[in-house]
Amino acid sequence: MNVQQSIKMLPTEEAAKLRGSGPLPARPYYDPEWWELERKAIFLRSWLNVGHVCEIPEPGSFIRREIEFARASLLIVRGKDGEVRTFHNVCTHRGTQLVDEAAGKRAQFSCRYHMWTFGTDGRLLSAPDFERFYVAKEDCSLKQLRTEVLAGMIFINFDPEPEQSVRDFFGPIADEMELLPMAQAIDFTEWCYEIDANWKMLFDNFQENYHIKFIHPRTGAQTIGPENPLGYPTHYGFSGPHRSQTLWHNPDPPPPGPTLLLGYGRAAQLAARDAYSFPKTDFKLFPCLHVVALPPGQQFSQTMMPLGPDRTRSTVRMYWTRETDCASRAFAREFGAMSIRDVLSEDRRAIEAGQRGITSGALEHVQFQDHEMLLRHLYETVQEKVADYLAEQEPA
Ligand code: FES
Ligand SMILES: [Fe+2]
Asked: What is the rounded distance in angstroms from the CA atom of residue 200 to the CA atom of residue 244?
């Protein structure tokens, strides 16, 4: 299966006709009151990527995740039965946080305060002098969140009864994700950074190529050419709240430089060739997950978790399907990850400057051209979700 079969990818002119063309209010990019609406309407009831199954390979393996916008500490655990579950990292006696470590492996979780002890399935196993309480043990399990796995990626939802499963939420893109290396990954290289920018401002940067020539004159040279001087994508697709774009193939790419050759070692020639023969379709998944579908070895995912109206944590990961069994492979991976870091650092300065400008309130509106139609789609989707939420709040 390829993307064209599952998502309708339209050439730019056709796709642009589906979208509006007018300016859009700038306020949603910085207003704390608007952010509070997004928090409730979107982030507290959407599927969010919080990790990968390879982080919890064995029964008892766990990771802890802090989700600041929800003021939540989460414990994601592989149970003795192999099931992946997510609990609030909160003892059901009087609320003490159970785990301080970021990750580890345990047969059970004991609270430091009065030693209530929970199983990997969240059930309360034992508690000293429990006869003196006025509650049943069955009613003292850790508080659980909805958790589903797709393509190896762990998704959670703060809504106890989400409208859709993860698979239904992603629609045809779910099948595409199952084909990506992350679905079989056993390891990953991670780079995490916080940025002074609204989450949409950050995501928008990765939804257009208009800036490549100016912000990435060195690193972006391979993705632009005389026939396409701004490196615009060739096709765009929309699937519910999600988007995708097919990048342009440069028919005559510059040869990889000596550093790239050294960095990628034996795989460099192959990587350079694949980079232009592989169908380069990116997924921009609602609300804040970006999967760059480059060839294996260059592909990365990025989760942009909002920390507030003008601050966001970005987690970039390259997933690997083989062990790091030799120095050259370890070097090539690190080189690949750091090359991405270089590019994203170039973006970072422009994004933060954009946030400072927009937060000043000097602009009432922002402008989008045809090749910024994915930004417009995200903007409109957010507006729709907030409008739905507000309509639900109105008394019947
Ligand atoms: S608060 Fe955890 S055992 Fe008392
Ligand atoms: Fe960029």
From this structure: 16
Nearest protein CA to atom 4 of ligand 1, as residue:
114
Q: Answer yes or no: is the C-beta of 133 below 6 A from any ligand 1 atom.
A: no
As a whole number of angstroms, the distance between CA 291 and CA 281 comes to 9
Cα 129 from Cα 183, distance rounded (Å): 46
Residue of the nearest CA to atom 3 in ligand 1? Answer: 114
User: For residue 115, which phi and psi values (nearest 5 degrees)?
Assistant: 70, 30
> Which residues are CB-contacts of 176 (< 8 A; sequence separation ≥ 6)?
1, 3, 6, 7, 281, 283, 293
Reported pTM: 0.93
Q: Is 184 in the pocket of ligand 1 (CB under 6 A)?
A: no
CA distance 183 to 153: 7
Q: Determine the distance separating the centroid of ligand 1 and the alpha carbon of 35, expressed in angstroms.
A: 34
C-alpha–C-alpha distance, residues 249 and 3, integer Å = 16
pLDDT digits (tens, 9 = 90+) for 97-142: 999 999 999 999 999 999 999 999 999 999 999 999 999 999 999 9
Q: Per residue in 248-261, pLDDT tens?
A: 877 777 776 776 66
In testing the pocket of ligand 1, which one of 87, 88, 109, 116 has its CB within 8 Å of the most ligand atoms?
A: 116
**Which amino acid makes up residue 25?**
P
